[in-house]
Amino acid sequence: MAMKNLSEVTSFHLSDYYGMEDMKPVYFCMFLIIYLTIVAENIALIMVVYREKTLHEPMYLLLCNLAVNGLYGSTALLPAVLSKLLSHSYEISLPLCQTQIYAIHTFAITEFTILAAMSYDRYVAICYPLPYHAIMSQRLVKLIVFTWLYPMLAFLIVFILTLQLRFCERTIEKVYCVNYLLVKLACTDTSIMNIVGLLSVVLYMIPQLIMIFYSYAHILRICLLSFSKSRLKALRTCTPHLLAIINYSIGCFFEIAQSRFNVSHLPYETKLFLSLYFLIFPSILNPAIYGLIRSSVCTRLKKTLQRFSGQMHRDVIGVICVYMCIRI
Question: Cα dihedral angle (154, 152, 145, 107), rounded to 10 degrees?
């Protein structure tokens, strides 16, 4: 009988969708607009950096990787959400659930790793301004490869253990699959998995945190000792990076708080917002935040959009540019 139950669980119910039943069209339109905005913003940003040779600098190339990761994470979530809102079933098959878990978790680790790499770039730019281009030209490709390869391999350790589990329960209390909730549905004792999961958090976060704190500790020390115009100019480029880190950290805090504390007393909309923040808001806000780096980026963005959109009305282009660049 036990073996029969093990073999039967090949799909799961995503129970949080039931809270959208009364307002499905509203939620569908909202998530569709969010997804299209994320795609438009990040592709436009990548396109501008690709076309403008003056932007072929380490900071902007790392920014392109952040945009690519934003597309990766939002695509792992939002098309599936839109599909479920159009259907009458809130079930997800085990293979699709596992695929979504791998995509969402690697997005989260990659986002943090790219932000750590960007902090290293700012450290070299401010603390070693003269040899900056020589140092980064030698290390940039390795840095970019590392920011993608490390998260993919690091999460694989935990993910392989998850793939070996068999499940007796079917309800996941979210609109998407996450590893810790899937593990809770396993038939067998998952004590070892829980220990590995906690240890893996150290592997996913501590190296990046060390890099960020180390970089900004040295940046602060240099800026306190010297107030040259070149260093102050470079320091201003740290502002959007710090905003991106704070924005992503808020999302991670919301996700961790939801998993560790009882939030059943909160309204459905609040719980949904908290669970989706780290997947949506970094991807939708990063292009806007980094529009603050340099006004010329915004000007180039406007010209590039006008060049590629012969039939697009100028007012629409203006709205996109104002949103992404705060002020052109």
Answer: -110
What is the CB neighbour count within 10 angstroms for residue 77?
Answer: 21
Residues 124, 39: Cα–Cα separation, whole Å? 31
CA-CA-CA-CA torsion for 95, 98, 103, 104, nearest 10 degrees?
A: 140
Task: For residue range 191-248, list pLDDT tens digits in order.
Answer: 788 788 778 888 888 899 999 999 999 888 887 777 666 666 666 778 888 899 999 9
- The Cβ-side half-sphere exposure at 250, using a 13 Å CA radius, reads 13
Across the chain, which distance is largest between two alpha carbons, in Å? 75
Give residue limits of the domains in the chain.
Answer: 11-238+294-326
Q: Is the dihedral of CA 308, 309, 315, 319 positive or negative?
A: negative
How remote is the C-alpha of 31 from its chain's centroid? Answer: 16
User: Running DSSP on this structure, what letter comes out for residue 167?
Assistant: B
Tell me the two tokens of residue 319.
């709205």
Q: 148-184: per-residue pLDDT in tens? A: 999 999 898 889 988 888 888 888 889 999 988 888 8
Look up residue 282 and give its amino acid.
P
Task: Give CA–CA dist 82/100, Å, rounded.
Answer: 14
How large is the angle between the packed helices 314-325 and 268-290, nearest 10 degrees? 100
Phi, psi for 182 (deg, rounded to 5): -65, -40
Question: DSSP states of 284-325 as a string?
Answer: HHHHHHHTTS-HHHHHHHHHHHHHH-TTS-HHHHHHHHHHHH
Residue type, 213: F
Query: Where are any strands of DSSP class E within the chain?
Result: 11-14, 91-93, 171-172
Are 66 and 41 in contact by the 8 Å Cβ rule? The answer is no
Strand 171-172 versus strand 11-14 pairing type = parallel
Amino acid at 18: Y
pLDDT of residue 322: 43
Question: Which CATH class name applies to 11-238+294-326?
Answer: mainly alpha
